[in-house]
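#help-structures
NK: newbie question, is this the right format to request a structure? protein is Winged helix-turn helix domain-containing protein
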Amino acid sequence: MAALASKGPGPHCLLTEHQQHELRRIPRRGAEDYGFAANGWTLVRIRWVVHEGFGVAYTDLSGVRRLPHRMGWTNQLPARQSLERDGDAIAEWVERTWPDIEKGPATGRGSASPTNRGPR
């Protein structure tokens, strides 16, 4: 039973309060200002900036994943959409195909495979 007991809320942040405050400024500048080709933040990029800027090395991304959460950041969607995006095709799919998917299979359980006819 002792092995199953909670050990608390998890590992402590490796950054000091001051470093966390400084880290909040990083996304405002944009990833391109740090030399990245595209202006988007990933966990790998955040880990690199934390290591370069504060000298703190996270060995895996699980610790880096907690940083944005601790600071109240959320995942964001891109402001722009792909040029290849076809809004009419998407609308047609949502109107015609999605309702059938939501309904589920047309027949009961079973398999279309001739070698597996389902439960007997």
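mod (FA): yep, format's fine, and the tokens are attached above. The chain has a mean pLDDT of 80.
NK: thank you!
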